[in-house]
Amino acid sequence: MNQKGTGWIFNGNNGDFSLKQPDRSSFLYFPLVNEGGMMSSVSPKLHGQVTSGHNTFLTPPLSVEDLHNSRASRNFWVYVEGKGAWSAAGNSARQNAKMYGDEADNAVLEAGLLWHRVTRESRELGIRAVITSYVPAGNDKVELMKVVLTNSSAEETTITPTAAVPLYARSADDLRDHRHVTSLLNRIYTSAHGVEVQPALSFDERGHRVNHTSYGVFGAAEGGGQPVGFFPVQEEFIGEGGSLDWPEAVVMNLEPQVGAGGGVHKEGYEALGGLRFATVALQPGQSISYVVLLAIGNDRIDISALMEKYGSIDAFDNRLQENKSFWADKVNTVEFHTSDPAADQWMKWVTLQPVLRRLYGNSFLPYHDYGRGGRGWRDLWQDCLALLIMEPADVRSLLLNNYAGVRIDGSNATIIGQQPGEFIADRNNIPRVWMDHGAWPFLTTMLYLDQSGDLDFLFEQQSYFRDSFMARCRERDTSWDVSAGSTLQTMNGEQYSGTILEHILLQNLVPFFNVGEHNNILLEGADWNDGLDMAAQRGESVTFTSFYASNLLDLSRLLRTLKEYKGLEILELAEEITLLLDSLHVAVDYESVSAKLALLDRYYAAAPNKVSGRRAELAVEKVADDLAHKAEWIFEHLRRSEWIQSGQGDGWFNGYYNNDSERVEGEFENNVRMTLTGQVFPLLGHAASPEQIPQIIAAVERNLYDEKIGYRLNSNFGGIQQNLGRAFGFAFGHKENGAMFSHMTVMYGNALYKRGYVKEGRKVLDSLYSLSANFELSRMYPGIPEYINEQGRGMYTYLTGSASWMLLTMVTEVFGVKGKLGDLLLQPKLMKEQFDKEGQASIKTIFAERVLEVVYVSTSRADYGEYQIHSAMLNGAEVTLQRVSEGVVIPRSLLTALPEGEVHLLRVELV
């Protein structure tokens, strides 16, 4: 992997980077966040938003287009005596007009984990500003800015600084509807350090209720100097005919509306955190610093405590170092060393992304201008993939809690609360089932079992979710109301709980019978590709039929493992679920769609949003046989009925049927229709036979690979496909219609590594890195975007599940550090060019609650497939290796005997 372009460059070795003239690239933004709920974004001109949730925006909510369209931003104005007004943030009408000329400011952006700094200098005015921003680690909802102004001219310069941050102070719902009416609710207070707003009421979807949240902007000059006045009302600050990027109060250097000490109360206007600081004369080279705090409080803000904690230069600098250490410690739990240092540092930002997704959900960054916060069902499980590597101690309880969202019909809750394991009944009368949802939990849980060896987890008890929807949202339970609670009950009104293993079996057995006319699992509301949302009646997802089949086979193997390792002979399941294990009583003809659907209807009737509470005892071996039989039937069916043999000598799997029950993929008269998703899941699991894999790879390269944007999610189908999904209404090459969608590209790479096609898998991962890091095209900071569009631009940066899969692939496939029922399995798949000049490649990661640095040494410079593990030394002592077909195993007991809190060196010789 090679960093391309002339954009950002890494500085040092901890992911810090810099970028010259950042404001000449559109749509750039950077996340600033903490675990206390403060969620900010900041652009090179300090645009962005500050919020703690959908109903509590300190600054106006925005989408990515507002980064250049809106005049509202964090701003820090400097009036230079005799020369006029200048924005230290670069956000003034005067500077914007000169951005492309010789009089443009010189600007350099620097950023790291998670801090942001812009240095900006006006040669015309002879002044330089350095603005550093971050959200301090911890639970305080506060964002901090430090502004350092320096006289860069050869003569004394007199300046008058003014901080100006619009205080929106309400719900995103009020941005258009009721924008003025809600400003009438504002109660604006001024004090010695700033401006605070606490609206009297909140107008949002929750109703008109008394508001307790407050919002404020506070500041101090170095040495503790308080502001000398305030501009708390926006319209008075900008003046008649003025604007936020050319305000009368600054341009004319007007006296503040409120004097030093504040104490003035205003009501009923759009508010501004306008802080005027004392006029000061700077000698050549002399600097002065200011601290600005943006805070959200659950009630009136304790300003003195806030300023004591954050409101000085020393406090700012100390908290900044704490913040850098906090994020470095979190990210550096996983570190990579290869022949490409830039790629290794890029991976630090990829490693950070799953944490950002956990904190932001899918909202609250400018590209993610959809959604009202929170995460979806799929996110819960995919984010855990990264947590298993980064924060494994927390994962067991998260997984256990997540299973409380499973319904007895095999579907799941779709509204997820703020607390772990909190699922909320859907009362909006828009029921919807994503057919893939049941497939993901077992994949994540199996990774946990392999990493931990905690087979007892499968026998933990957990409740089931229920609301008014039944039979996968095709029926309503008219007897249910919210007062009945959202947990499944028995016929006598007691809460029913089942084992985690029971939940997993249910999620994978119900879909097996829920098939369409071609005997593949129904698409329902959509699968992983949410854009395939218009084929709910007759659409089928061949793609996820293969995923469920692989789960069924792996579940069968897991049951046999439980018998071998735990001596499990009998499995207890809710008696209703035994209907789905048809071979144990009356076997169903799997070739018959009607027979499958009839059995499913019998199951729904037996478990109509309630269960008997009785449990059946089943022989583990027979259940395992039933699951394996179902899986093998699907594999044979897919290879026979859904394989497309191309006239070009290659082939691929059809992935879907549309709502007219027509096959979606194949070679048509005017075009070739192919999806990447339809190939990934047969490859990831067991559906694609060894003979089919080379043909799939060739077909993907021919039909989906584009050197400019990488591996497209699909070829150009032509037309809007209203019988399949909204995705095809998007222009081809954008988002889910033919863009390089990172999530599926990474999963394709992962699948190729899993199936032993390492060279091909590396090409896939390398294309994603190269495209993302090519700033001239991608125009994004380090990390993986959700997708890359037709022009090569990275879109929807930071919040994407692809980061979890990239991290997982690098750790478990490329470096081959993975679990095997708790033991450490080493199975490196490194190419020779990934080793450094000394023939080494290494990874630091957590396994068995110990920090390991695994160093692979390849002095022979052999390529993958030509080397094998010869020996291993753990902290200088030779390890006896247990060789298995996949690689070598090191017993968990050997690792848990090591002291905690240290980095343990595992040196592995490859010959």
UniProtKB/TrEMBL annotation:
<dbReference type="InterPro" id="IPR008928">
    <property type="entry name" value="6-hairpin_glycosidase_sf"/>
</dbReference>
<dbReference type="InterPro" id="IPR052047">
    <property type="entry name" value="GH94_Enzymes"/>
</dbReference>
<dbReference type="InterPro" id="IPR011013">
    <property type="entry name" value="Gal_mutarotase_sf_dom"/>
</dbReference>
<dbReference type="Pfam" id="PF17167">
    <property type="entry name" value="Glyco_hydro_94"/>
</dbReference>
<dbReference type="InterPro" id="IPR012341">
    <property type="entry name" value="6hp_glycosidase-like_sf"/>
</dbReference>
<dbReference type="InterPro" id="IPR037018">
    <property type="entry name" value="GH65_N"/>
</dbReference>
<dbReference type="Pfam" id="PF06165">
    <property type="entry name" value="GH94_b-supersand"/>
</dbReference>
<protein>
    <submittedName>
        <fullName>Cellobiose phosphorylase</fullName>
    </submittedName>
</protein>
<feature type="domain" description="Glycosyl hydrolase 94 catalytic">
    <location>
        <begin position="625"/>
        <end position="816"/>
    </location>
</feature>
<keyword id="KW-0808">Transferase</keyword>
<keyword id="KW-0328">Glycosyltransferase</keyword>
<dbReference type="InterPro" id="IPR010383">
    <property type="entry name" value="Glyco_hydrolase_94_b-supersand"/>
</dbReference>
<dbReference type="InterPro" id="IPR033432">
    <property type="entry name" value="GH94_catalytic"/>
</dbReference>
<feature type="domain" description="Glycosyl hydrolase 94 supersandwich">
    <location>
        <begin position="117"/>
        <end position="311"/>
    </location>
</feature>
